[in-house]
Design a protein that fits this description.
The protein contains six helices and no strands. By secondary structure, the chain is an all-alpha fold.
Length: 131
């Protein structure tokens, strides 16, 4: 495996399921074939984030994707969050709000309202752009 560098393309991160537990710095470093301290340094230098921040951001992005999935709209947010790797409701809400500025419920509600508004405005043949 090629060494991880500050210039490693984002493709190197694709396929890494950060929402699968357990997710540790040493485990990811082993999977990438690099020393833990080197991975930590690259994350800090390239992304300005700690390992845990990167993991939680990936989990938030996965949860956002699931919250937007119509097939999962009936699922409880906490169940989706736990499936994304969050270990508790408080950890889920704190990290989601940190990365989006909204709670998961607010995010879901806002997305639904926006979609309904767009559908309503589109159905009237009006401009979908807010005034």
């Amino acid at each position: 495996m090629t060494p991880l560098t500050k210039k490693t393309p984002s493709k190197a991160w694709s396929g890494l399921n950060f929402w699968k537990l357990p997710c540790t710095l040493s485990g990811l470093a082993r999977r990438l074939g690099v020393p833990s301290h080197h991975l930590s340094q690259v994350l800090n230098d390239r992304f300005g984030k700690s390992f845990h921040d990167v993991v939680n951001l990936a989990r938030v992005e996965e949860l956002k994707r699931r919250l937007l999935d119509r097939d999962l709209s009936a699922e409880k947010i906490l169940a989706l969050g736990m499936d994304c790797g969050f270990s508790s409701k408080s950890t889920l809400n704190a990290n989601f709000k940190k990365h989006t500025g909204l709670t998961p419920s607010q995010f879901r509600d806002q997305v639904v309202r926006t979609a309904l508004r767009a559908a309503d405005e589109g159905g009237r043949g009006g401009d979908a752009t807010p005034p």
